[in-house]
Structure formats: structure tokens, C-alpha cells
Design brief:
Layout (H helix, E strand, L loop, with lengths): L1 H10 L2 E3 L7 E3 L7 E16 L2 E12 L4 E9 L3 E13 L3 H16 L1 H4 L7 H25 L7 E9 L3 E7 L3 E6 L2 E5 L8 H9 L4 E2 L2 E2 L9 E2 L21 E6 L5 E7 L1 H4 L4 H12 L5 H15 L5 E7 L8 H25 L7 H9 L16 H11 L4 H5 L3 H4 L1
Antiparallel strand pairs: 1-2, 3-4, 4-16, 5-6, 6-7, 7-8, 7-13, 8-14, 9-10, 9-15, 11-12, 15-16
Protein name: Protein phosphatase 1B
InterPro entries: PP2C, PP2C_BS, PP2C_C, PP2C_C_sf, PPM-type-like_dom_sf, PPM-type_phosphatase-like_dom
GO molecular function, one term: manganese ion binding
């Protein structure tokens, strides 16, 4: 019986009434959420200041709508010129909340009295308190806007960000996007995802009269903390941080190390679904050894994750400290040799098939995957070199170049 119930919960609508809460319509989308082929056009930006450099990239991918947003601000107002703020917002059920947060969250954080605590230079505790207050304020503000529109907006968004001061880095997380810090050649810190199945999150959900089914809040929402999602925040007698979905961020303060800090990565779960923390750090480090173009590095991250099988929107912000890896002539040489080697292998595979039976790109990638190829980028492996393989393939087979655009990552392996 349990198996039958879970199947029905995954396919059809059902209604759940929660202790005086509004009626929630629950549906696990099983069809129609994806395009026939991914949209690979990217939004890019970069900048520098306060001894930081950053690059960012976002791509719609296979999803029918782009729901991600981001913020990158170097130099904050109100006397905080040496401070910087970066964030990624992963929207769901629409992009409204993500877009609003990217434009207004920073203001809610820095303008509330808790942030400064009456001091010219905010203390660590004042900053942490102000960030929390800012999240709760913007969530309540968006609820008021939504109610004026008669509850039309049912969207929500996770948020992961960093507030970088001259002496500290504050990681901010609400949901299952993730941020990490690479220090001295390894992952030094990463935020913890807020999933409904986490013991403390599950306890709060159950205390609010809800349940966790198929690792989702009431069988529907895959995150236990988010901004927006007001259908899950109307349990009478419970405060804003005690609801089925909480807008409260976790804030982590890390003292900066000028000598050892390398870079920070902020990314939505479309990235983390297919790359582990160490894999992504190793990949970024290897890319920084062959290019100073941070936009290019971010583009390679999202492309690699697409070819690794991510079906979600993808957004990534890369922030580099002065101690970030520098271009290595040896790494540049090995990269050029690898590209040349791959070109020769693609030519060899195509010639082996014969002119009358030209293999498709899927066959070429699968054949390459069976071979031991030296010096592939760590963490990215062959998927990170798909663009090189595709370029050679299209040059040798221009009449079949259109077919390569729609080849899915799942078909590659």
C-alpha cells in the first residue's frame, strides 16, 4: 500500500490541510518541465576591487524557464566601501522571488539597525544578526506584496551568498544552493544544504504539522528553507522560523587568511547535482592555472556540468582572492598537448569508421570514454573537453553539425 501511495503522490495532485494553514496543492512534475534541447546561451559578468576578482555565468540549460538570479557588488554603501557582497538565488515555481531578492536583499541586510548595532564598523555578532534580520524582513515584505496581489505569487528561492569584509568572510545560506572556500589547496569550508530529510529540518516540519515524503516537504518541495514559498508559511501559532519552510539563513563567519585563501565558489544545486565539492575545487584550480579569464572559467563549469548530466538551471559565481592559483606555463603546455591529442583521436575514430559510415558525436564520445587519456582536467574529466571534441567533429563533418546541439549528456556515456 505504501508503494502505491508514493507512486500516486509522485504523479497526481492531492490536497493536504495543515492546522489552519491554507490548502496546499501538491504535485511532483513528471512531464513538460524540460526542453527538447538545452539553451546554452550564457549571461556573463566580471569585475574587480577590494583586492578581489570575480566572474559569473548563468545558463538556462534544459529547463523551460530560467529561474536563477545573482548579485555581485564590490564596495557597499553607508561607509562600507571595503566590503563586498555576492549571492546566487535559485528560484522555483517561478522567478519572481529570486529576481526580487537579487535587487533588494542586500539593502534589507545593511539598512536594518541590527547590522551595525550602533557601531561605525559592525562587529561580527552585529553582522550575523543583521543578515538574519534582513532575510526575515525581506520575506515578510514579499509576503505583503504577494497578499496585495491576492496571493498570485507562489514562487520561492534559495539563497547562498558571501559578505566579504577586510577581516572576515561571512557565508550565508538558506536552502540547497551551496558556497565553499578553497584555502591552501583544499576545501576549507562549505555550507550545509537545507534538505527536508535533515533531522533538525524534519523535526521543525513535523512540529508545524507537516511531513517529509519522498524527501520533500509534504511530498512536494525539495528544500526546507527558502525565501518566498508562502503556501508553506501559514501555520497559525508558529513564528516565521518555525514554519514548514523557514526563511532563516545559517550564517558562518570565517576569519580571512591573506596568505592561504584562494577562491570562493557560489552555485545553485544544478552545479552540485553533478560535481562534488572537491571535484569542483580541483576543476577550478586547474582552470585558473591556464587562464586569468574568470568568465571563461565559469562558462567551463556550467558547460561541464551540462555534459555531466545536469538538467537544471545553472548559475555560478567565482570570487578570487590574491592567493588564487596563477597561470602555470607547464599547465598551459599540458592543456595544449591534451587538446591536440583529442583532435588526433577524434580524427582517428572517424577515419576508422570510413567515409560512408560516419559515426555520430555520441559514438565518438563513448569511444573516447573507454580510453585512458592523460592530463584530463581533474573534476571535469572528459566532459570538460566535449567542446574541443565537438569542434573537431563539426570541422570534419560540417553536414552533421546540427545533430551535435541536441545530443544529451545522458547519451554521451
Amino acid at each position: 500500500m505504501l508503494a502505491v501511495f508514493l507512486y500516486l503522490a509522485n504523479v497526481f495532485y492531492f490536497s493536504v490541510v495543515i492546522k489552519g494553514c491554507c490548502l496546499l496543492k501538491v504535485k511532483e512534475v513528471t512531464m513538460g518541465a524540460f526542453l527538447d534541447k538545452p539553451k546554452m546561451e550564457k549571461h556573463n559578468a566580471h569585475g574587480e576591487g577590494n583586492s578581489l576578482r570575480y566572474g559569473l555565468s548563468s545558463m538556462q540549460g534544459w529547463r523551460v524557464e530560467m529561474e536563477d538570479a545573482h548579485t555581485a557588488v564590490i564596495g557597499l554603501p553607508n561607509g562600507l566601501d571595503p566590503w563586498s557582497f555576492f549571492a546566487v538565488y535559485d528560484g522555483h515555481a517561478g522567478s519572481q522571488v529570486a529576481r526580487y531578492c537579487c535587487e533588494h536583499l542586500l539593502e534589507h541586510i545593511t539598512s536594518n539597525p541590527d547590522f551595525r548595532g550602533g557601531e561605525r564598523e559592525p562587529s561580527v555578532e552585529s553582522v550575523k544578526s543583521g543578515i538574519r534580520t534582513g532575510f526575515l524582513q525581506i520575506d515578510e515584505h514579499m509576503r505583503a506584496i504577494s497578499e496585495k496581489k491576492h496571493g498570485a505569487d507562489r514562487s520561492g528561492s534559495t539563497a547562498v551568498g558571501v559578505l566579504v569584509s577586510p577581516r572576515h568572510t561571512y557565508f550565508i545560506n538558506c536552502g540547497d544552493s551551496r558556497g565553499l572556500l578553497s584555502r591552501a589547496g583544499r576545501v576549507h569550508f562549505f555550507t550545509q544544504d537545507h534538505k527536508p530529510s535533515n533531522p533538525l529540518e524534519k523535526e521543525r516540519i513535523q512540529n508545524a504539522g507537516g511531513s517529509v515524503m519522498i524527501q520533500r516537504v509534504n511530498g512536494s518541495l525539495a528544500v526546507s528553507r527558502a525565501l518566498g514559498d508562502f503556501d508553506y508559511k501559514c501555520v497559525h501559532g508558529k513564528g516565521p522560523t518555525e514554519q514548514l519552510v523557514s526563511p532563516e539563513p545559517e550564517v558562518y563567519e570565517i576569519e580571512r587568511s591573506e596568505a592561504a585563501d584562494e577562491f570562493i565558489v557560489l552555485a545553485c544545486d544544478g552545479i552540485w547535482d553533478v560535481m562534488a565539492n572537491e571535484e569542483l575545487c580541483d576543476f577550478v584550480r586547474s582552470r585558473l592555472e591556464v587562464t586569468e579569464d574568470l568568465e571563461r572559467v565559469c562558462n567551463e563549469i556550467v558547460d561541464t556540468c551540462l555534459y555531466k548530466g545536469s538538467r537544471d538551471n545553472m548559475s555560478v559565481v567565482l570570487i578570487c582572492f590574491p592567493g588564487a592559483p596563477k597561470i602555470s606555463p607547464e599547465a598551459v603546455r599540458k592543456e595544449a598537448e591534451l587538446d591536440k591529442y583529442l583532435e588526433s583521436k577524434v580524427e582517428e575514430i572517424i577515419k576508422k569508421q570510413g567515409e560512408e559510415d560516419v559515426p555520430d558525436l555520441v559514438h565518438v564520445m563513448r569511444t573516447l570514454a573507454t580510453e585512458s587519456i592523460p592530463n584530463l582536467p581533474p573534476g571535469g574529466e572528459l566532459a570538460s573537453k566535449r567542446s574541443v571534441v565537438e569542434a573537431v567533429y563539426n570541422r570534419l563533418n560540417p553536414c552533421r553539425s546540427e545533430d551535435t546541439d541536441s545530443a544529451s549528456a545522458a547519451d554521451m556515456w
